[in-house]
Every structure is written in structure tokens, then in C-alpha cells.
């Protein structure tokens, strides 16, 4: 239980445990209102600084009869999103969380102790699981019991708008990373399909990030190409970036070979100052073009006669079949001009990486429309050579996978267990908003601290999970945090930074 009440009804007043030396060990329920989530005070401040939940509530329509509503829309959304950030992914958790006055404070509930509620709900300041469930299921359409309607297009645009606002104004180059992942399904949910690559029934959500800032989170069925929906997302995201950052900022789309589709590349090529660096799946033609870059090296290390004998028995195009010493290492880059036989509408610049790693031949390719002569590049070495573009720029997209892991593992984006796609999409957005708030805390409050580069899961563990005792009086709400908190100095620094960043 996250919070316990001083007035717990129990006939046994004191609980005895085994002695510690000559001293008795006893416990009772006189500790008052306690919570394990003292750090939610910081979460509340970052939410209020950005007016986040207040703006989010405009993406919903509440048709409930106002005089009978106990839980207003804004604190209801804050309760769900803050709880995810604090580690409570299941709406069933809210039957216990509704007793926590500190979470009620985080949601700006005036009646922190639930003293003004009806007798059957005394002490329960927050909404229970049924109310939260109706909020989520309202995404599927309104009925007599579900009267809060989520507007998908508003929520989608809200995420883009909030994400773009967090991209630095003076950014010269804005990189947008796209990727898809699997979201396993364990029931009979709508949109249930088997995915051959992942080997199970799942959804196939599409994500877009700019650094650690989420811009897109779309839940999709798994019976589709990984890139489907990317072009629609790009049009909305690029338009919003142009609106805020103007035409001078260069926008680069970065993704793996699953997104190397002609419609995406062609659209990007038609946009001024928008470019792409995207992985390209290898094929026999590309490998044949790259093969000469291996020849000289292999002849030197294997001997010309031995290498020629290998070529007699092995087609050099099937490079992985060439047996090599386990300690052999090699890397070279080749500039190519390439066009597919049917799928591409034009010839494009391809950078081939001829690599041998631990004795295994491993050719790789990327395609880009960057020429290295763009005005905004200046002397930035990252974009001036094919090797730098591959090693220093393209390979950096792997960091986006860490962002997806944070979404899936730390913010429970895979908790899509309702029966309908629409409500599961709403859960995905709630997870993304919880991530965005925690990310804002890292960016705004934790600069210069030990948690400056911590994952959102580590921030929760070390900064949110602080034991706290709450006392409520007419004039003050007083919270006593755990005296033995290991990161009390980080908490103090974060509080100072948040005060400095507060509006007004």
C-alpha cells in the first residue's frame, strides 16, 4: 500500500517483533499520512511550470453533469500520468493510490485527506480504478457511463507541439529519428496480428524522437510495413518545426533500412532544407559494387594465391561465405551512385561500408541526399565525408533505441491491454506524456547533478521514491521527507532549479 491512514481500524494497537539485543522492537499505525513517493513534489512543479496537464485537458471533452462531478478532468489526467511516472502502470493500482494525500497534492486536489467526500469514500481523495477506466475507454466513443471523450487528432498535435517547443530555438541542425518496435499482445485485443520477424502477436508502434524529446507515438497493427505512417508524421512534424524555427534550420530524417522507401525519400527531396540519412538493406548488386574494396586487403592478408582459390569456390558477392581468420579486422568506405531496378524513381548517393569484424565480412550501406556542399554544413566534419556521415552521424541513431526502451520498460508503453485500439492508443499517449514530464525534470532541474544523464527509470528510483510524512493544517501542508535520503542534495538542487525556471 502506498499510503496508510492514522485512523486505521485495528484492535491490536502495537505489533511486537523479535528483540534487537536488549531492546524491544514494536510497531503501530500512528505514523500519520505516509507516502513512498515524496519526489512527486518535483513532478508537480515541473507540470505546473509548463502548464502541461492544463493544456492537455483541452484535448478532451467532458460531458459529465458538472454539479455531480467529484473528480474534475485536469486532476484526473494528472493522477493517471503522474502515477505512470511514479511507477504505477496498472489502473488497478489506483484503488490504493487514491488514499495517498501526497499524490492528491501532486494533482492539486484541495481536499487532500478526502474528508469532504461521502461516507463510503471518506479518506479517498483521488479517483479509483473504475473512474480511470472510464476515462481511458471513453476514447472508443461516448455512452451513458463514459462521458469524457478523447480527441485523437488534438492529442497527436499536442504531442508534436510540446515536443517541438522543447527543441532549442537556436538549433542549426534538427535530427528526427524514426523507429518501430514490437508491443506484445497477450489477449484478444482489437488489431491482433502475428508478426513474423518478432515471432509473436503484437502491435507495431511507430516512434519519432528529436534527441530525447518524443514527437510521435502511434499505435499500429502489426500486419504492415514498418514505415507505414511515417510520411504522414513527417508532414505534420516538419510543418510545426518550420512554424517555430523558421526556414533556415536544417532538418535531417534518420532511420534504419525499414524506412528506406521511395515515397518517403522523394517527399524529403522535394522539401527545402530537409534531408535524410537512412539505412539501406544490402543486396547482390550493392555487394558486387562494394566487393573491389575488399580485394586488395584480402590479397595482402591471405596471399594472392589463397585468395584466388577462395574465389574459385565462393562467389565474392556472397561475401559472408568467405572463411577468414577470426582476428581479422578491416574497415573502408566507398561512395556509390545507385538506383534500384524498380522501386526507386531516381539514382541516389549511397555510402558503402566494407567491414570485416572478428573475421566476419559485414557490408553495410546508407543512402542520403546530403552532398556535403550545403551552406549550413560549413566546416562541420560530421557531414563532410562518407565515413564521418556513417560512423559519427548515422550510427548515433542507436541512442533512439534507448529512448524506446525507456518508453517501453520505464513508462510502461507496452501496457496496452484494453480490448480496443483507441483506448490502447490513449494509454500509449499517457505513457509518452509521463516520459515527457520526467524528461523535462531531467532537462530543467537536474543539470549539474549526478542524475543529469540518468534514465527516467533511475530518476524515479533515486528521486521520486522518497519516504514522506504529510501533515495538513488550516494554514499549511507540511511534508517531512526521509532524513536518510541518499540524494537529498540532488533534491535540493532540483528544487532550486525549478524555482528559478518557474513562470514569473
Count of domain modules:
3
Q: What's the mean pLDDT score? A: 90
What percent of residues adopt helix (DSSP H or I)? 25-40%
Q: Whole-number radius of gyration?
A: 28 Å
Describe the secondary structure blueprint for this structure.
Layout: E1 15-20, E2 23-27, E3 33-35, H1 40-50, H2 52-56, E4 60-62, H3 73-86, H4 94-97, H5 101-106, H6 129-137, E5 148-150, H7 152-165, E6 173-180, E7 183-184, E8 193-195, E9 200-203, E10 206-210, E11 213-218, H8 230-245, E12 250-255, H9 262-269, E13 274-279, H10 284-290, H11 292-302, H12 304-313, E14 330-338, E15 348-357, E16 360-361, E17 364-368, H13 386-393, H14 398-410, H15 421-445, H16 456-464, E18 468-472, E19 477-481, H17 488-501
Parallel strand pairs: 6-12, 12-13
Antiparallel strand pairs: 1-2, 3-18, 4-5, 6-10, 7-9, 8-9, 10-11, 13-17, 14-15, 15-16, 15-17, 18-19
Helix pairs in contact: 1-15, 1-17, 3-15, 7-8, 7-15, 11-12
